[in-house]
Amino acid sequence: MDENNTLIAKSGQEIHIVPQMANRHGLIAGATGTGKTVSLQVLAESFSRQGVPVFLTDIKGDLSGISKSGASSPKILERVEKLGLTNYSNRDFPVCFFDVYGEKGHPLRTTVTEMGPLLLGRMLNLNETQEGVLNIAFRIADDNNLLLLDLKDLKTLLEYVGNNREKFITAYGNISAASVGTIQRNLLMLEDQDGDFFFREPAFDIYDLMQTNSEGYGVINILSAEKLMHSPRLYSTFLLWLLSELFEELPEAGDLEKPKLVFFFDEAHLLFNEAPKVLLEKIEQVVRLIRSKGIGVYFITQNPLDIPDDVLGQLGNRIQHALRAFTPRDQKAVKAAAQTFRSNTTVNVEEVITQLGVGEALVSFLDGKGIPVPVERAFICPPSSQIGPVTDEERKATIRKSPIFGVYERELDRESAFEILTERVQREENARNEAELAEKEAKELVLQQKAELAREKAEAARERAERRNKTNQGGILEEISRQTGKAITRNISNTIGRQIVRGLLGSIFGGKRS
Q1: pTM of the complete model
Q2: Which structural domain range is residue 318 located in?
């Protein structure tokens, strides 16, 4: 809409965003239905025209219209005429669709190893002790060259570590069985939320976000987040991982004429909700330092109070839509938002902020020296692309025409911790079985030897008994024979004696008998 493609809003004067200052980050805030999405769309189009790639999340599914030329509706024409936009025209923009689940765009995934224990611990909602155990598990994997690609790798590793805690405690510290169990249960819950779709190969290459088309327009990368938003912790952790990857991978760039990439973080309050102090410190550090990598980060949220002060202070370019002051917290937000703008004697920010209409905003960007310009009450320029979603057929056609079509659609399953540990456990099980079998056979051999020895002893005892029996029987027979002889002799002697006596007596008394 202007030769530099930097016009964003207009009131009594034009309000431009300075390309050199676009990596000083920004904020789009306002209540539901006040025009935040259109402001995001206009900013994205402006950056694309400047040749700056964009990444944004599509929470409601209506940003896909950027890929299609807009229609000259009465409302659009009225806004164009009211703002005096002489060079306004409808057009489409180069778009690349992504989707963690691979349903409405190219699959956008990473590996467990690349995610790391800190972000994964947040995703699993772990406490400090459990995060410590997860850190130990990652260290064991690193030290043993175990690739953690997907959730089955991590589950297998945790099972192995839990079953072999005694081997690791000395080198890595205490490993609580209860903590291991909690992590495993939370992994199951993550799987129930389809979180396993995110941890797969091929892992996403962040340089695929920084593309331009043949006209020199920056590609607008749109992540379909309608389904992902059902798992808010997964959504926020995923975007934070992507931001950290940009921070870690990109080289220092210094002050550039324009950013390498502008990153829009919608529903930004989810990033900071219940985040532990250590993570908040990391987020602040990334936001503060990533601008030197040529990356601009723009947070979109309903209430400026959703953003911690340390982060809010880093956001130099601001579009503030209407806020409602119904509650004490709302009133506090209105006052806080008003105080963050550079004052303008012609605008009572605290009063105006509750009176803004749809598409109207308080706007303040950084000038060429990095100084915030006085806040202006202005109307956001209408987008050139379609407001609202495209059809499923149009989306699929855009996906098929993408230069990265087919790169991420085919899944890989390399040898990783699951296969290695499964094989190792099987070998150990086989070794245990062989050892138990050998021990059993040795015991059986010992028992056989003992039984043989017992039989030999019994046989020897039997033989000795037989010999003793024979010996005893001979003696008994001799004794019996001797005793029998004595008895016979005695009987014979008695008989003879009796016969003699009788004979004598008989003869004596024989005469009497006769």
Answers
A1: 0.83
A2: 7-109+204-401
